[in-house]
Amino acid sequence: MDSMLAFLVAARRCEIHDLEQLARSCELVHAVSELVHRLQAERGASNLYLASAGASFGADRAARVESTAAAEAAVRAWLAQPEVCQTASAQAMPGGARLFTRVALALHALGGLPGLRETIAARRCGPAEATLQFSRVIAALLALVFEAADVAAEPAVSRLLVALFNLMQGKELAGQERASGAAAFAAGGTGSAGARGEQTLLHLIEAQEACFERFEAFCPPVVRASWEQARVRMPMAELERLRRKLIAAGQGAALEPALAEPWFACCSQRLEIMRETEAALADSLRAACAQRIAALRADPDDLQSLLQALAGLPESPAPLGALVGEAGGAVSNRPAGDEAAGSEPLGPRLTRSIVDVLQAQSLRLQAMSDELAAVRATLDERKLVERAKGVLMRHQGLAEDEAYRLLRQTAMNQGRRLVDVAQAVLAMAELLPRRA
Amino acid sequence: MDSMLAFLVAARRCEIHDLEQLARSCELVHAVSELVHRLQAERGASNLYLASAGASFGADRAARVESTAAAEAAVRAWLAQPEVCQTASAQAMPGGARLFTRVALALHALGGLPGLRETIAARRCGPAEATLQFSRVIAALLALVFEAADVAAEPAVSRLLVALFNLMQGKELAGQERASGAAAFAAGGTGSAGARGEQTLLHLIEAQEACFERFEAFCPPVVRASWEQARVRMPMAELERLRRKLIAAGQGAALEPALAEPWFACCSQRLEIMRETEAALADSLRAACAQRIAALRADPDDLQSLLQALAGLPESPAPLGALVGEAGGAVSNRPAGDEAAGSEPLGPRLTRSIVDVLQAQSLRLQAMSDELAAVRATLDERKLVERAKGVLMRHQGLAEDEAYRLLRQTAMNQGRRLVDVAQAVLAMAELLPRRA
Hints:
2 copies of one chain form a homodimer. Chain A has 436 residues and is mostly helical. The first copy, chain A, has helices at residues 2-51, 58-80, 82-85, 96-111, 113-121, 127-151, 155-186, 195-218, 221-233, 236-250, 260-297, 303-311, 320-324, 347-396, 400-414, 418-429.
């Protein structure tokens, strides 16, 4: 009976440990979402600066650089805390291997920013190249958020992370649309890119919508309501009018360079409105972690009164943490020999109570695990599609958006789900030689 | 660059920590598989003892009890080690909350054995009741093995655990078939159970085959080969002949009580042959853990030579463990301000090396995560079918095998997969009131 109780308490300790570690990664995600937003603004200002050949937006760009640097410093300071990756407990972070690898890759990407800024300041690159470089840094940060969602083991928090990741990804595609459109207007047409530029734009629009759909599916009602209100304020009529001109340009029509600025302003306004929801979601992520930890400390299966009864304590509201918070505490795990076989040294009433708590805890954990599997299925689908895209890019030499379009077109032609086509591509890929 | 390296090393430490914890749960699974096998033998001997009204198998039963008790003591001694659930590191066991809860439930089930044995010795219950009680204990132990498979995060080990779980489950169904058939022969017919007994038998046979198919799909080639050889030695002609008689009895034919003993002997021979493969698989599980840990210590992405280069050490074969084995070791994580923006204090060659290691590690972890998702899909399907069965049992008042048959029949009638029907049942269940 003693050892049964020891494992019951150890299970609860594991649950608390995992939630505390999850709360940590959510703090990081919060800081990263701010950094991504500022990087997007810096990318925009850098593009305008480069497009105007340095004539305007210099001061705006400088302000953006400073703002990004502050957000980056916040992320780095958070990461530099010893308890993040240097303590023994941090080495036991669930999914830590994957998460920390993503952090290192993101730090590597961030390390390239000072060089990029020098290049931009000296105008030694064009807007397209600058966009590409900024987008790579942002992609590394988004991959970190995705990983955090994928390793999270608490369904409520996991849902929020999936919602946040999809909103961030959709917003990033909107940011890329802004950059690509601004370049096209500034150049007076899609130029040599022609239909290719039109396809890129269509892909960015379509992929955004897919992200927002997934975001809406996973987002809590209160954030969903504020998102609906935010959408109404977005300048969609103006955006669609300008999008139409860009698409017509892909078919040969000329573009008025004067429209570059209204396009940029209208896209930016939309991004800022998205950021409101994104920030609300990042806040609710923190709140959800705090709430889950509080719920666990509030003792869902009534472990505390059981432990009090065992200790012969009065039923005073001692915090559960005091009883189960530290390893190797009050509950001993005597070797099996100590237990008279079949006897119930605690009496049948307490034995019954332990079994009740145990069964409640087991059902609760099982329900959580089932719910989590459902949330993760979405992430698994995304992983499959991303990997299938990678295969097509490698084997067929396609660009990312071309690869995505090929998958989607095949799915439509064959009346199959995108994820099934992706799976077929991956199965086929194992039979094909890899391009060097 | 410093902090990037710190996270790279922390990721490796997490990987090692997780593998070591996984090796622990595999040790437990190894001990549990032995205990389950002995419980099955004790259940068989207890049945024969009860069926002969205590006239025979008394000595055999006593020997089985002793043998089971030794295996149980081994499991309990293993669990009583302080590092299993009482250290801070154990509290950080991946999936620990679920695994430890299952351990506690299994300990509770084992706690009922002494009472059950007293009841059997005094012949205060019949074979059916004894079978049911033993089967419950075995089910709690199998649930522990299933959980270990479900929380394992290393695909090679996870595949072996899935294979072992299915083999154990199939063998347990074969053990239940032995008990149910022995009771029917001893009683001279299925009696009042009639067609119900026949259905139970058909269900046990069919469910066994499904388990062995999944086992074969996940089992490594070497174990698969020894399984094929083992199957040849199984007395299948005799078993099928006796099964035929049992099924005919369900349709009203009488059974010769004298066949109880050949039936039991033939089923037992089959179980013992299965146990050979099961033991081989449990051994290969231990070997696989050791091999994965060795592979990780052998430094797949060449982190060690990188760390040596950074430390200015000669390229002597210092063990990676010495460099990354303990938290807060050689690699410091200086705050961001220490790094001159954009400079590469380590020189471009070393920076490049860090990025190479990082990317290799990232690809490796991603491939592992993808492979794992594929293995887990099988487990998720099983969970869905189990939950759907539970819903049908609650809502329709069906027995377990009836619920399974209803699911299977519906799938066949509608030409859908079993798992899709299970999903439909679960979706429907949310709309229905729950029986008290």
